[in-house]
Amino acid sequence: MKIGVLALQGAVTEHMRSIEAAGGEAVAVKLTEQLEDLDGIIIPGGESTTIGKLMRKYGFIEALQQFSKQGKPLFGTCAGLIVLAKQIEGQEETHLGIMDITVARNAFGRQRESFETDLPVKGIDEPIRAVFIRAPLIKEAAPGVDVLSTYNGEIVTARQGHLLACSYHPELTDDYRLHAYFLNMAQEAAAAAGK
Ligand code: GLN
Questions:
Q1: Ligand 1: nearest atom to the Cα of 11
Q2: What is the pLDDT of residue 122?
Q3: What pLDDT is attached to residue 110?
Q4: Atom of ligand 1 nearest to the CA of 106
Q5: Which residues pair with 3 in a beta bridge?
C-alpha cells in the first residue's frame, strides 16, 4: 500500500518511518497531484492552524475532501485530528471538516502539556505506547463514529469508516501497530474499490 504523509508542516519523517516499518510504502506529499496514486494519507501532528493555512494555500482542502469522498482512508494524528474534525470548540473555522467529531484543542492544560502512557485500543491486542504533546481531545462523537480508546474517560482514538484519528503521536515510538491498523484500512478500501 502506498501511503502519503502530508508534508506541509509537522512530524512527517517519523510517520514515513513508521509506515515503512509496518510494511507499507511511504511518500511525502507536497502537491495535490501526488494524491492520485495513493491508497491513504496521514495528516501529521504539528500546529493545526499552520497546517490548515498551508492546506488552503496549496489547494489541499478541496483535494483531500475529494480524496475522502472516493472512500480513500485518512489518518489524522494530534493536529491532524483537529484538521479532520467537523467542529472545533471555541473557533468558527474548521479545516477539512469531514469527521463527525467535536474536538477541544490543547485539552490537557499546562500541567500536563506532554506525557506518555500505555493505551488500550480496540482492535489492537495489547496497549500501545502513546505520546501526548499539547494534545486535543474528542469531546463529542456522532453515532457513526467508533470510539477505539479513551483516556480518563475522554475519547482519544476514533474511527468513522475510512477515517481514523488519534489525539497523540503514534509515530514517536517504535510501536507501529496503529500504522499497521491504518494500512489494513487502506487494504480494505482498495479491495472494496476493486483494486
Ligand atoms: N496543540 C496543537 C494544535 O492545536 C496540536 C499539537 C500537536 O500536534 N502535537 O494544533
A1: 8
A2: 98
A3: 75
A4: 1
A5: 26, 40
Distance CA 30, CA 7 (A): 5
Average pLDDT over the chain reads 96
pTM score: 0.97
Give me the residue spans of the domains in the chain. Answer: 2-192
- Matching CATH number, 2-192, of 3.40.50.880, 1.10.10.10, 3.40.50.12780, 3.40.50.1110: 3.40.50.880
Q: What's the CA gap between 164 and 182, in Å, rounded?
A: 8
60 CB burial (10 A radius; 0-12, 13-18, 19+): buried
Q: How many helices (H) and strands (E) does the chain have?
A: 5, 12
Cβ of 159 less than 6 Å from ligand 1: no
| H or E, element range at 12 | helix 12-21
The three cell numbers locating residue 176: 507501529
Q: Is 50 helix (H, G, I), strand (E, B) or coil?
A: helix
DSSP label at 171?
A: G
Helices 60-69/48-57 angle, 10° precision: 90
Angle at 49 between CA 178 and CA 128, to 5 degrees: 15
Our answer on whether the CB atom of 89 is closer than 6 Å to any ligand 1 atom is no
Q: Which three cell numbers stand for residue 178?
A: 496503529
